[in-house]
Structure formats: structure tokens, C-alpha cells
Amino acid sequence: MKFSEKWLREWVDPTISTAELSEQLSMAGLEVDGVEAVAGEFTGVVVGEVVECGQHPDADKLQVTKINVGDDELLDIVCGAPNCRQGIKVAVAKVGAVLPGNFKIKKAKLRGQPSFGMLCSFSELGISDDHDGILELPVDAVIGQDIREYLQLDDVTIEVDLTPNRADCLGIKGLAREVGVLNQTSVTELQVPTVTPSITDSRNIQLLAPEACPRYLGRVIKNINLNAVTPLWMVEKLRRSGVRNIDPVVDVTNFVLLELGHPMHAFDNNKLEGDVIVRLANQDEKLTLLDGNDVTLQSNTLVIADSKKALAMAGIFGGLDSGVTSESKDIFLESAFFAPDAIMGKARQYGLHTDASHRYERGVDPQLQQVAMERATQLLLDIVGGEAGPVIEALDNALIPNNRKVTLRHARLTKVLGIEIAADTVTDIFQRLGFSVSLDEQVWQISVPPYRFDISIEEDLIEEVARVYGYNQIPDIAPVASLKMSQHQEQKIQLSQLKNTLVESDYQEAITYSFVDPKIQSLLFPDMEGLQLPHPISSEMSTMRVSLWTGLLQSVSYNQKRQQSRVRLFESGLRFIPDNTEKTGVKQELVISGVACGLLRDENWDNATQSIDFFDVKADVENLLNCAGVEGYRFNSTSHSALHPGQSAEILIGDTLIGYIGALHPQFEKKLGLNGKSFVFELEISSLGLKKLPQAQEISKFPANRRDIAIVVDDDKVVGDILSCIEKFGANQLVGLNLFDVYRGKGIAVGKKSLAISLILQDKTKTLEENDIQATVDGILVMLSQKFEAYLRD
């Protein structure tokens, strides 16, 4: 918003400079974007009167004038302005004057006629871009007075960038109130007398949408004279506020908007039919706006209408067909309160933004309509004459915003601001802001006026105290924080640790949707019915996932179709298992899943071309569990609806099932658009339990000994069970165990397999003798014979 500093100082005049005022407004939250002079730098220009005006003898477009500039001094000046005529008051730059741009006025001859000065236009004085003619001054202008003094051009335009919550400052009235509060200076209140009606003409008003417009005032003013000229003082105040003058009626409504912050509108009364009706627009109702554009109204738009048609978009833009023109004689003047929610976003809906919508969507004072009506009426009667009818008001008092009660605790104020402010000072701040205040036991009960739409909670009041008290008065004190160890359980498995382990294993993290295609999910999990979404994005994303495999496998297909043959992805997230025992009907489980396909390693001259298999992915899962400190896990062969019947396993810790691993069933590869085998795994994180923390132990200084054994067992014996049995038996001395060969073929009976196992034996207290080593190996062989019917290979 732009405003003239002198206009503001007519309301409140603190003893501070322009720079100090700008700084004060910015620090109070009303950021000043710019300060500009209202006119260019010039000297030697005075008020003059055209005493004589005649045609130049040698030029059709020039006139020879005599100008009275006071002190019985008449100047001969040649002028080319078309509006120069005898009897008007003008701005005269005498010889020696300096105009903007360091243009000096000298004696001259124009087509043989002497000229001792220049009659100036607005543009030549750097006031505006208007250069159509010379500046015409009111008849009461004092001849010989310096034009800067007469027009009060030693003034600046201040532009403030108001945040949306400070709509109360979108007018001189609100800005003056703010400046008065900041400087503890009294504000000159505008005295608006009530205009006594001189005619009985009126229009009935109907409120059909009271929630959007609970108060609407209208008044008929007849027999106005639109040939009247807007006073120069009003034109200047509008100009310095960035508003161009148009005609007296529009200028008055704009003036009231800038002065009080309250938008108004005038209709041509003779173009209205029947009652004035405030209603919501009919769907696809047509309206031609004042700028000539046609709009198709939507049913959520509030309009002002008569009994037959829409007249204007309420609080946004007037209509062309009911607008005031130069032929208008009677007008209907409106002053209304439109609820912010009813106007908010509606202008942008039609690609519009007006001064009225800017204010209404932020909120105007719901008690200001009568004052605005009387102020505009009096200004119109003074400028264009006419006869005013009575003010007709339609009101739904229950929907008018009232004072809000908000509580502020002194202790809370002190804690948030970090300083102690005296209670009397706080009370004074609120009273100067126009709030009703009572203090009881260090708690303020504040009654907030309705024009402060931005204040509703305790923190809003604290902000008011801080900005009025002055942010610069609040000392800069660095915050002090004491260090406190976090309550972190080291044994708890961290999801980030699991992710990092998979990244180090050459997997890349993926993020897929939690809702999936029910057709694909039912293929993989026919026995599990996922939770259906009531309002899905699409039919392909209408079911909550029961496993992360669905999304990951679709991601593999997506990548393979883009020439990515080697894909290794993992994802962590929730799966949603229907469960009637839960309040929500669904059990949410945090899992980490992965998928791998293609080559085991990137293609390279030094690497053999080898496709990934079940044991490669199993090694990745084992690495994941080992790095997470999980012990006692095992893999058991099992069947799963989504997995290959011969390449699938369940993962257990004790008797607790924590997940599955395996190759995707071949029957799903084509249906999912996959190329080649894909291997998947999924672990429920909460079932992993607590990890075992490493414990420091003394390193044995005695040598380790390796013994290799090759045993023959039935082909159906699980190697993992055999290795676990060896670990338990040799717990004291066995420090290394490894299966390094599996053989089936010549020399091994059908249905049997040979397992080559290395044993690393070491003692912490002594060097193992040969008989000690052999005793341990023999014991292991006896135990394997008993439990697995194993025997040494010949």
C-alpha cells in the first residue's frame, strides 16, 4: 500500500523524521518497501493568474499571455498549451527557475514574441506523466505563492508491504492508529457528521446469503453533477497513493477506501430494477465487468443483483451495465461487510485482483460501514451536489464478528520473550492498541476488536507486545542449553543401519506407493485380501499393500523396460495386514524388503559373466542380519504363494518367523512384465529383537590349527543344521567353521552328498597338542554320526 506522509501526519504527527518513521513501521511488522518524493526537484515556480490570452501572430498553436505573479508584476509568456485561457490559475516558472533535470528558465523569443518564463504542466514539474496541458489550480490559490508550498510538494510517498494478517492497516485510519501506538501519540479521529436525508427515495435490500454478507447498507443520491471536477487536494492524495483520478464518484469511493480502508461501490440508480439482492450467483450466470470483459460466474461467487440480473461481483468488481457513466444523474451507493471466507480466492478464480478484493479477503472492520457511508455521502454532496436519501441497512446481527476474548499469562509472556516487561507497560500497550483490558493475578483478559482478525490465541498477543515494546529493546542473549545424554538403547536395531548395509551390498533404495494394483497383489498373495481404499487415485492404486514385493517387482519391470538388465533394489516401509483384532481393522508392520535380478556383478573383463542366484541373495540377507547384530537365525525350506517351490525359505529366529526369501514363481514373471529370474526377500523389523552387543575379549596368543573333514550324509540333510551342531560341540576351542565344498557324483552313492568342512581350533590358555585336536575332531565326527548318520568320505 502507498500513502502520502503528509496525509498520515494529518491524523497523527509524531516528532520523528521520515527515515525514523520508515524504520519504526518496518520494525513493527509493516515493512517499508520504498520512499519516493511526490514531485521532482525544482525552484522558482509560483502561482500565477492568466490576465490576458491571445493568439500568437505568427504561430497557430501558440498563444501570447500576460501572467500576474503578484507584487503588481505582469509577465509576458508564450504558451502552447491548448487549455490556456484567461482567468485560470497556473504554475509559472519565472526567469531563473530551475526545473527537474536541471532545466533553467531563461528569457527567450518564440517566433518573434518575448517570453519571460514558462507555464508548467504536471510532467514538467516531475509530479506525474500528465503532459496534455498546463496545470490548472483552484481559484482560491494565492497569487505569487510558491507552488511547492501551495501543493505541499515537500512530501514523500511511502510504500509498505503488509502481510496478509494486517488488513487493519490497509487505510490511513489504521496506519495512523499504529503510528500513534508506537509513539504514544494521540490520533486525530475523523469527525464524520450524519447526513440528514433530503429526499425519501430508497431501495429495499434483501440478504439471501447472510453468512457471506451479514451487513449491507445502501443509499440513493439523486441529481448529481458529473461535470464537476474532483478537487485538486483529493486528486493529489489519490495520486500520491498510487491511484489515478477518474471521475468524482469513483474518486470519492477510492478516497474513502484509502482513508478508512473500507471499499465502496456506486451503481447507476436508474439502471437498477426492483430490490437490491445480495445472493450467490446462479451457475454459469453471465456478467460484463467494468473493464469490458465477460465472465461466467460460478455458484460459489457472491453477487450484488437486482430483481432481474447480476450487477457486480460482491467485494471484487463492478458490472458495466450498472456502472456510473458521464450521463448518470442518480446513483445508489453501497457500503457492506463481506465475510473474508466468502471473498477469499474468488478474485483469483476469475484471474482478477482488485483493491476491494485485496481488503475484503483479508477482512475489513465490520463496524465501519455506517461511517464509510456518511463520509462518502458528504464528500459527494460537497463535490457533485445532489440530494441524499435515507440509509437503508440489511443486517443479520448474529453473523457479525464480535470482540474476541483472549487470555495472556504474564509468566508465558516472560518465557517467550526472555525478558520481564512490567505489567503496567503491557496493559498500556493493549489499551493504546484499542483493546479492552483487565488484569487479575498476573493474567490479562483481553477483548480484541473485530477489525483485528489476526488475533485469536495467546501467542498473537505476545507478538503484539513484542513489536510495540520494540524488538530493539529486547536484549540479544544467546540461548543456554545443558547437554543431556539421549535415552538411546544401543541394543535396538536401527533402520538406518539396515539401509546402509544394503547400500554397501550394492542395493539402491526405492520408494513405492503404499497402495497397489489389487490384481497384481492377488496374484502374489491369493490368500490375503488387502484393505480397499474408499476413494482411490485410480483403479490400479486402490488396495493397501500386504507386502513391499508388489511395488518393488513393478519397479524392476519399469527399469528392465528401460534397458536396465541388472537391478538391485530395497525399500523399507509399512505393510498393511487385515486384522480384526486391531481397532482400525488393519495391522501395520514395518518391514524391509529387497529384490535382485540380472548379473551378480557389473559386466567387466575381469569378472566371469554369472547370473545372480538364490544363495547370492541369501548371502546378502545373512550379511544384513549379521551387521545388525542378530544371532540365532536360520533358513528353513518352505513354500510361499509368490515364490518358486524349490527356491524359497522362511527365516526364523528361534521359533519366530521374521520373513521370507526366494525366487519369484516363474508363472508370475510374464504377468508382471519381468525379464528373467528375480529373487526377493522381506524381513519384519520388529521381530528381529535386540541385537547382541560386541564384547571385548582377550586375543589368544597361541597358534590356531586347521583341520579339514569330508563327511558323507543323506542328500536331504540340511547343511545349516550340521554346522550348528558342530558349533555347539566345539564352542570352547572352535573359532572358525566353513563349508568350502559340496560334491555329488562319482564315488558318492546316489542320494548322498559330500560336505568338505574346515575347522579352525584354538585355545586361549595353551598350545593345542595333536592329541587334543584329534580328540575334538573325533568327538565332532561321533556326534555327526549319531545325529545325521554321517561318515567320513574315503
Description:
This protein is an alpha+beta fold and 794 residues long. The strands form 10 sheets. Strands 3, 4, 5, 6, 7, 10 and 11 form a 7-stranded antiparallel sheet that branches. Strands 28-31-32-36-35-34-33 form a 7-stranded mixed sheet, sandwiched between helices. Strands 13-16-19-20-21 form a 5-stranded mixed sheet, with no helix packed on it. Strand 3 (43-55) and strand 4 form a beta hairpin. Helix 1 (5-11) packs across helix 4 (172-183), helix 14 packs across helix 17 and helix 19 (719-729) crosses helix 20. It starts with a strand and ends with a strand. 34% of the residues are buried.
Summed up:
With 794 residues, this protein is an alpha+beta fold.
Please give the number of β-strands: 40
Structural class by sheet pairing and helices: alpha+beta
Strand fraction equals 25-35%
The chain-level mean pLDDT equals: 92
Question: What is the topological layout?
Answer:
Elements: E1 2-4, H1 5-11, H2 18-27, E2 31-37, E3 43-55, E4 63-68, E5 74-79, E6 89-99, E7 103-104, E8 108-110, E9 113-115, E10 117-119, E11 136-137, H3 147-150, E12 156-161, H4 172-183, E13 205-207, E14 215-222, H5 232-240, H6 248-260, E15 265-268, E16 276-280, E17 285-288, E18 294-297, E19 302-305, E20 310-313, E21 317-318, E22 331-337, H7 340-343, H8 346-349, H9 355-360, H10 369-384, E23 387-388, E24 392-395, E25 404-409, H11 410-417, H12 423-432, E26 436-440, E27 443-448, H13 458-469, H14 495-504, E28 508-509, E29 515-516, H15 518-524, E30 543-544, H16 549-560, E31 567-578, E32 586-597, H17 614-627, E33 633-637, E34 643-653, E35 656-664, H18 666-669, E36 678-684, E37 705-714, H19 719-729, E38 734-743, E39 752-761, H20 770-788, E40 791-792
Parallel strand pairs: 13-16, 28-31
Antiparallel strand pairs: 1-12, 2-12, 3-4, 3-6, 4-5, 6-7, 6-10, 6-11, 8-9, 14-22, 14-23, 14-24, 15-22, 16-19, 17-18, 19-20, 20-21, 25-27, 26-27, 29-30, 31-32, 32-36, 33-34, 34-35, 35-36, 37-39, 37-40, 38-39
